[in-house]
Design a protein that fits this description.
Length: about 100
Amino acid sequence: MAYVAIIFDRPDRQHLRPAHQEAHYNYLKENQDLILLRGGFPNESGVGFIGGMLVLDVSSREAAQAFVANDPFAQAGMQGEVTIVHFTPAHCAAIECWR
């Protein structure tokens, strides 16, 4: 089943992002078999991020919650608002079409 996780950083924790970024990306790479789609939400300056979105191929909402909770960004206390919803895809354009 697919679940979408929309995650926003806590504004008061943005300073933690650089210190945990490598561990975050390693976590995503190590679990790429569960990730159907991932990407970040750029901040207004376009230099950094304020959060991101994952489309996960997991068995339940609880599994999606656990995946998000085990992310190094979450472990560092960076996560603010997190929304996880079941997702039924209807269409997906090739990544080259997204820019």
